[in-house]
Each structure stands twice: as structure tokens, then as C-alpha cells.
Design brief:
By secondary structure, this protein is of the alpha/beta class. It is built from 13 helices and 15 strands. It has a 9-stranded mixed sheet. The chain has a 6-stranded parallel sheet with strand order 3-2-1-4-5-6, sandwiched between helices.
């Protein structure tokens, strides 16, 4: 049954939040502990598609008990319910939180991008551990707020960039930070995917009986359902719901770049992209980020450039010759780290390649151990080692990626970013895109 916001027991939600606050521990120790016998009581928000995969991976941990399932699509909910028959089912995540109170420890959020922050922040406000799919949020402001509130809550968090914990990306980070190619002066990263739409205006149609369309829209402005354009698979193309190719793939591919180089916030972002349609994303993007703050692994004024939709970097001066003297091509997705003493080509997803080949022919590369991103989150919730892709890291990474999506709406303009003030100086139109207005009735505390 779908309940409008007015049907949700707001008092109960506030009581849950107060109870969670009363259990606050200090210095980042999770304030919500697992249930008896070291079991983590988990609820899923968004359990179809990637959400179903997330739920399966999290619940494969022997200490996880799935107690709740929430999805606005009755078909998704029924399918997940067959796999977890003991779990309670909900269509509105606010109703789910009000119903469970303290009898839930953690949630995973695997919805379209525009609902990531509302669902994740509601969980944080109630003191729950949160695993949230990438990109962490839809807006820059949301990313900042999730990072700050997660730190206040002292709970365990993890962004769903599963490749972050795998051997290829961990090995690349290890090689860079060991100084194998010296300090890095620039990185070029790319994806051949295209998440944009430049066709005729979508035509309205009947809402499927299985879909709670108003709840799917959530914080976004009301509009008709348009078959084939939004739910279930094309929402990434639309500015109000997704984050385009950068939100889908740059958040993955730039992850080892930010992690290896310990990057902070960019100081300037400039786009050479094709102009995007008003309600969608550009079909081809080229976005340059300049970082004036030097790290132990970068030279001064390090530059990172992103390409998608078929655009690729100029490789003329890159050392791409194989041992046989043949020149290798670029993978469809990946990164090239150009350092003072060599280069690293990192395919997505594949092991890093040291270049020039002849120079590093005798260099032994010790692969980093593989990690289960999902189980690492569960282990952390149960008192194990901290996650390495918590909101403290994922928030700033997402901010940078989303600043890129904003720059792509203003090709040729230099956006000067002041991270402490959360300000794009001298560009009111870009500044206005840092934070969107939530639809009345779907407001969330701390957002």
C-alpha cells in the first residue's frame, strides 16, 4: 500500500530520531550496534535491478538478516520478497523507518540518483548505517550534507563503487603511492558510454499499475509518466533524476585517481563539451579539473581531464608501445596516469599496465589483495575495520564529479570553486545548480 507523506507518523519518526540520538557514542564509533548474536538487521531501499544485486551481495554475508524491503515498483518488491520471505515489505521508505524504529540496524539505498540523498539522510537522521549506490548524491549540496551528518552520527557508511575494493584498483593505488612512476603531473580518464537524450519531447502515457509514480518522483517536480524514458532504465539521461555519463562512470573511473593521488577539491573546472539539451546531458563531454593544492603524489597544478561519449585524449606523446614495438590502443574505459618517471594505463576493469613497456620490463608488480566491498561494509557495522569508501571519502569525490556535470552545462566557462564556502565564484547560473529545491511534502531534515 502506498502512503502519502501525511499518512506517515511524523511523531514516530521524530521519536525514532530522538532514541537514536540518545545512543550516540563519540569519536566516530558507530552508535547503532548490531542485533543479538552479532547479526546486522538490514533493510533494502530499492530492490530491483542494481538494488537486487546489492541486496544479494550484502545478504550473502553470514551475519546479515534482511528484515525490510522497500520499492516503489510492486514487481521488484514481489521478486525480492520471494528471496527474503521473512522481510516486511514497504512502498514508502519513510513508512518503513517509522514502522521499524530501533529494530533495524542498516539500510542499502539503490534507487535512482535523485532519491539517494533523501533516503540516505533519513537513515542517518535515525542513526542507521548506510550503504548507498553511486554517485552518492544528485546534487553537490547533498554530498556535503551527507558527509557532515554521517560524521556527526558516527555510523558506518559506504558508497557502492564495488570496484574500489578489488585487486586492479587497489594495485593501481599501491603503485602510484609507492612512487613507481614518480609524482603524477596529469591524468586522463574516459568512458565510451553515452547517457544523454536529444530527441523529441517524451510523450505522456499510462502509469503502470505496479508503479507508485508519485513516490518514484519523490523530491522531483511533478510530471507525467512517459513510457520508455524514466522508469525503469533510462532515468540517468534526465537532469532531474540522474547524473549522466559522469555520474554513472566517472564516479567509478575517477575513484582510483582520487584515492591514489589523495586529491582534494578542484580549484577550477572548464568544459569543452557539446552543449547539453535543457533537460538532459550532453552526448559528448570533455571536462578539465585543475588542482592547485599539491599532494605527496602530484606535481604543482595537477590537471585531470575527463572524456565520454566517444571523445578520447590525444595519445600522440604517450608511451603506448608494446614489447614487440606495436602501438597499443586504448580500452573503451579507463585512465592514464602520466608521471615524472613513467606512466600507468588503468583499464576499467583491469590490472594496471606500467609504461613504457621496455623501461618496466623487469619491474615486479605485487597484486593487492581483493576485497568484498559489500562484506567489508557489514564487517565494519559489526565492529570490524573501517570502510575505505565511507561518506568522508565518497562525499568529496562525488562533489568533484558533480561539479563536472555543472561545468558541462556551461561549455567554455571557467568555474572557480571555493569548497569551504561551497561557492562557484562569479557564476550565478552555475551556483544555482549546487542545490535543488525539493518538492513540497518530500523535504528531509538536514537537506
Amino acid at each position: 500500500m502506498t502512503l502519502p507523506l501525511t499518512s506517515v507518523n511524523r511523531r514516530k519518526l521524530l521519536q525514532c530520531g530522538s532514541a537514536a540520538a540518545a545512543g550516540l557514542l563519540t569519536f566516530g564509533v558507530p552508535r547503532v550496534r548490531a542485533a543479538a548474536n552479532d547479526r546486522l538487521r538490514l533493510a533494502g531501499i530499492g530492490v530491483g535491478g542494481m538494488g537486487g544485486s546489492d541486496l544479494a551481495s550484502l545478504s550473502s554475508h553470514g551475519n546479515v538478516e534482511v528484515v525490510g524491503l522497500c520499492d516503489v515498483d510492486a514487481g521488484n518488491l514481489a521478486s525480492a520478497g520471494e528471496k527474503h520471505p521473512g522481510a516486511k515489505r514497504f512502498t514508502d521508505f519513510r513508512e518503513m523507518f517509522a514502522s521499524f524504529g530501533d529494530s533495524i540496524d542498516a539500510v542499502h539505498v539503490s534507487t535512482p540518483d535523485h532519491t539517494h540523498a533523501p533516503a540516505a539522510m533519513t537513515a542517518l537522521n535515525l542513526g542507521k548505517h548506510v550503504y548507498c549506490q553511486k554517485p552518492l548524491t544528485h546534487d553537490v549540496f547533498e554530498s556535503r550534507q551527507l558527509r557532515l551528518e554521517a560524521a556527526k552520527a558516527g555510523v558506518v557508511t559506504q558508497m557502492g563503487t564495488q570496484i574500489h575494493s578489488t585487486t586492479p584498483y587497489r594495485t593501481a593505488v599501491k603503485l602510484v603511492q609507492a612512487g613507481t612512476i614518480g609524482k603524477v603531473r596529469e591524468v586522463h580518464s574516459w568512458s565510451d558510454k553515452t547517457w544523454g537524450y536529444d530527441g523529441p519531447a517524451p510523450e505522456a502515457g499510462d502509469v503502470p499499475e505496479s508503479l507508485a509514480w508519485d513516490l518514484w518522483l519523490g523530491t522531483a517536480a511533478t510530471r507525467p509518466f512517459c513510457p520508455g524514458h524514466y522508469h525503469p532504465g533510462n532515468w540517468r539521461r534526465w537532469y532531474d533524476f540522474g547524473c549522466g555519463t559522469m555520474g554513472d562512470m566517472a564516479i567509478h573511473i575517477l575513484d582510483p585517481v582520487f584515492s591514489a593521488l589523495a586529491l582534494g577539491a578542484p580549484s577550477e573546472i572548464v568544459s569543452a563539451s557539446s552543449a547539453p539539451p535543457p533537460h538532459s546531458y550532453g552526448m559528448q563531454n570533455e571536462t578539465r579539473f585543475t588542482f592547485t593544492s599539491k599532494t605527496p603524489y602530484t606535481t604543482n597544478d595537477f590537471v585531470l581531464t575527463w572524456y565520454d561519449g566517444g571523445r578520447k585524449p590525444d595519445t600522440t606523446d604517450w608511451p603506448l608501445e608494446t614489447a614487440d614495438g606495436e602501438r597499443m590502443g586504448l580500452p573503451g574505459q579507463g585512465s592514464m596516469f602520466l608521471g615524472e618517471k613513467g606512466a600507468i594505463l588503468l583499464p576499467h576493469v583491469g590490472m594496471p599496465v606500467l609504461l613504457p613497456t621496455a623501461q618496466f620490463a623487469d619491474t615486479e608488480v605485487e597484486a593487492a589483495p581483493n576485497g568484498n566491498h559489500y562484506h567489508l561494509f557489514v564487517d565494519a557495522c559489526l565492529g570490524g575495520a573501517p570502510t575505505t569508501c565511507g561518506f568522508d571519502y565518497a562525499g568529496p569525490l562525488t562533489e568533484a564529479v558533480l561539479l563536472g556535470t555543472i561545468a558541462n552545462r556551461f561549455p567554455g566557462d571557467t568555474l572557480r570553486w571555493e569548497p569551504e564556502a561551497m561557492k562557484i565564484s562569479g557564476h550565478d547560473a552555475a551556483q544555482a545548480l549546487l542545490r535543488r529545491q525539493y518538492r513540497e511534502g518530500f523535504e528531509v531534515k538536514n537537506l
